[in-house]
Structure formats: C-alpha cells, structure tokens
Amino acid sequence: MNSFYYKITCSQFPQISLAGHVRITPPYVHTRRRPDEYILYFILDGEMFLEEKNDTESNSYHLVPGDFLILDPAFEHYSSKASDCTYYYIHFSCNDFSCTQEHLPDLKETLKALRFSSFSCESSHENELLYLPKYYHMPQSSMIHLKNCLSATETAFLESLEGHRLKTSCLFLDFLIEASRSFTGDILSGSSLAASGSSATIHRILNYFQDHYMEDISGDSISDIFQCNFDYINRKFKQTTGKTIFYYLNELRIMMAKQYLQSGYYTISEVADKTGFHDVYYFSKVFKKYTGISPGKYIV
C-alpha cells in the first residue's frame, strides 16, 4: 500500500500567509472548505478529528498532542467531530513542494540514499530534497525544538519590522528540515538500516564522525565503540560509500580544515589540532594529498 509524502527542495523558501495558534472548544467545528494553499496543523493539547477528501479518496485523522498534519489544496477538509484542542496553524505555499506516493520499502531506500548523500564531502547540497509525511507523530526527543520553531515562526509573522516575511520563511523552513530529519531517522532506524547490521553500523559511524572528527580515532577505537570487526566494517563501508573509513574521515577533516583556513582566524598548526591531526607536518602532507596544494598556499 502507498502512503502520501511531500518533497521540498531545501533551496526553496515557503511563503507564509498565516501563522498562529488557537484553542477551539465545542461546539466549534472546522467547516467544509478546500484551501488554495497548504496548511500545517501541529497539535499542542487535546484532540482534533478531521476528514479530508476529494473525488477519488477520503481519509480520516484523529490528531493528538505531538501530531502534525499537512492539509492539501487538492482535498477539502472538515471536522468530523467537535473537540477541545490547542494547535499551531501555518498556511503556506511553495514553488517546489510536491506530493508523492511511495511504498514504504521504496521510500526507505530513497531516504537511505539521501542520508548517505548528505554525509558526502563532495556534495554541494544546493538542491537537497526533504521528505515529509502528510501525517506524523513527533518523537518526544524532537518535540521541544519543533515547538520552539513554530513559536518563533508565529512571533516573526506577527512582527512589522523589515525582513519579517523572510525571517518567518526561514524559521518555518527550519521546522520542516527538523521534522524531515526526525522522520528520516525514524524510518531508517525502524527497518531499512536495521535490516542490515553493517548498514546500521556505517550510518552510526558517519554520524559519529560529524561530532568527533577532531578526536584521535583508530581502527581499534572504532571496533570498541561500535562493537564490530574493523576489517569487515571497513570493507562494507567502502562498498556503501566508495571510500574506506579513514579516507572518508580524512576527507571530512580536510573539508573542515579548509573552512578554518578560509576564516583567517587560525594558524596552520591550530587548524591541524582542531581537525584531529595534531601533527602539523602530517596535516600538511594529507592536506596536499587531498587538495593538490599545501595549507600555506591555500590561504594565500
């Protein structure tokens, strides 16, 4: 069975026409309407009962705290039952926001490819895709941050200062990115990566490197941290990413080193230490191997 998902390109900013939060109580109900834009509901308290339908299909939703639902202009919607509910609402449009239907196994493979691509040191990330479910219950670990995103979006929308529209769009895009990351993480940890122990370990190693690339990392430490045979996981890592573990790690470190050097705030020795090399001569050797020039020439 297919499910509905939305795709959005990260470079596209959603345009917000209405943002706020409200509490509804019986006997109030949402009257039947078909919006001309997308509407996101995020439930804070209570519950909401909604129907959404068009000429070919109909869907019922019982929303509780932590749920969000994206209402689509291709459907009309209305309350199926009066209820007491407090929720955020964001009315928005976006040039590159499209609905897709995919079988869950196909979606898992798509999300896995996107997640691994996001770790690539070679990707420009300019046209990265986000996947969002039409309906989703937020995990508790993401709840506070996402509530804060929507609260900040509402505050920015109500401002009358210069740039408030763009600020509102940026804050709501932050919400969409965090919601997409949470959803992707749930899907991948649920089955697609878990189905393959080596894929799950590779994913954890990639995540680990993002936060610990500046530390001393060895084959033994990787084996200890991830409870795996290093030679085996290194082979699987190369099959998946096209690079060995330490080639990828050095590539990541050099990418970060280039950013530090470009800032102009650090000496070459300091950059070496901040990126996990600690030996400036070895750092210079690796830097030249990956970029073709020495660190000194790179910052001239």
In short:
The chain is an alpha+beta fold and 300 residues long.
Protein described:
This protein starts with a strand and ends with a helix. The protein is elongated, with a radius of gyration of 23 Å. β4 and β5 (58-63) form a beta hairpin. It has a 5-stranded antiparallel beta sheet, covered by helices on one side. Strands 9-1-10 form a 3-stranded antiparallel beta sheet. The relative contact order is 0.12. α1 crosses α3 (164-192) and α4 packs across α6. Mean pLDDT is 88; it is low at 191-195. The longest helix is centred in the middle third of the chain and has 29 residues, at 164-192. The chain has 10 helices and 11 strands. With 300 residues, it is an alpha+beta fold. It has 2 domains: 1-195, Jelly Rolls, CATH 2.60.120.280; 197-298, Homeodomain-like (Arc Repressor Mutant, subunit A, Orthogonal Bundle), CATH 1.10.10.60.
Summarize the SSE layout with pairings.
Layout: E1 2-9, E2 15-24, E3 38-46, E4 48-53, E5 58-63, E6 67-71, E7 76-81, E8 85-93, E9 97-103, H1 104-118, E10 129-133, E11 135-137, H2 140-158, H3 164-192, H4 197-212, H5 219-226, H6 230-241, H7 245-263, H8 268-274, H9 280-291, H10 295-298
Antiparallel strand pairs: 1-9, 1-10, 2-8, 3-6, 3-8, 4-5, 4-7, 6-11
